[in-house]
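Pipeline run #58 for the internal structure catalog. This entry was flagged by the ingest filter as a single-chain record with no existing model, so it goes straight to prediction. Upstream metadata was stripped on purpose; only the residue string is passed forward. Reviewer on rotation: M.T. Logging verbosity set to normal.
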Amino acid sequence: MVVFCLPLLFLLVTSSLASLPDLGYPGWQCDASLYQKSQKVPTSAHSVRFSDIKIIGALGDSLTAANGAGAPKGDPLAVILQYRGLAFQIGGDSSLDEHVTVANVMKKFSPNIMGYSTGIGSANVWEVSKLNQAVPGAQAADIITQARALVQIMHSHNDIDIKNDWKLINVFIGANDMCRYCEEKENGVHSKANWKQNVITAIQILKDNLPRTIVSMTGMFDMRMLRQIDHDKYFCDGLHVFECPCEKKTSFTNDDVSQACHLYMDAQQEIQDSGIFDTTDDFTFVLQPFFNGITIPPLKPDGEVNLDWFAPDCFHFSRLGHANVAKHLWNNIVQPVGSKNHKVDLSDPTIPLNCPDTSCPFISTTKNSVDCSKYLTN
């Protein structure tokens, strides 16, 4: 039996991370005006500059917990590790020069932003997770519990001014629901209606308890891609029997998978379009749909699936995968509602990391995307 002391384990993990491909944007800069805070703290969610955000948080499953993101190639056991510091929405390891995450981009605008994760650990380890409350295996019903936990943590933390601090909460959920959809669709557990109501319930908890909050929800992705990723890769194929049973159920066809995923996408769009989270000035909900139209996984120039994107289980994102997803998510965040990309090229690493629009320097929302002039402030 081999026992590692913690310093040695840290060195081993650090060494494995250093050998993995990654994506950063060294020296990335935007117009100087975009780094300025509002002269007065805004009261409207539609007038919030990126530099006004003081708190960042997240709800989700193992993709937001970043399971396996730093796992060495060929080491599927390391997929159980939650590399939260690399998570595409809220990871804070290193800097934007070395690794893209939404949190690392936000540090450029708000250097003292609080809540991003660092290191490896679970949601209940504050020193690692901070305000990343994602839990591996979570389904939509579980983010209700996560929302309550996030509220409790924020209200109990002395460094967070619940009433006055602007918060950006990222939500990404649906993969585990879809992995059980084919087995339980008859009893409606994972129906579109139930999934939609669970998401609404979780976000309503945030709305009721966290004033001055913008919820950014990453759109569902078409999970038929999984079948292309693990095709002829027998080890991954075998793992997915346990990780995602519906992917391996032959009677659940590619078209069935795609149609079911699009039901969840439709539910997300309906939540945004309904305006139910735009009834007060200090809270809003924005969908980031860049995943929606993608049916092909990232490919190498020779047409083979680029497994550098994925952890050793061919399911979770690798360090590089998180950085690439973060780039596209950030670009969606700065795009106006109604003009957001619904399909991006995952295979192209040269796509730039975009800056906010100087003529509308706010986090894009349903309202300021229609007429930004109504919300312009100094």
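catalog note: The beta strands are 53-60, 166-172, 213-218, 283-288.
catalog note: The first strand starts at residue 53 and ends at 60.
status: ready for reviewer M.T.
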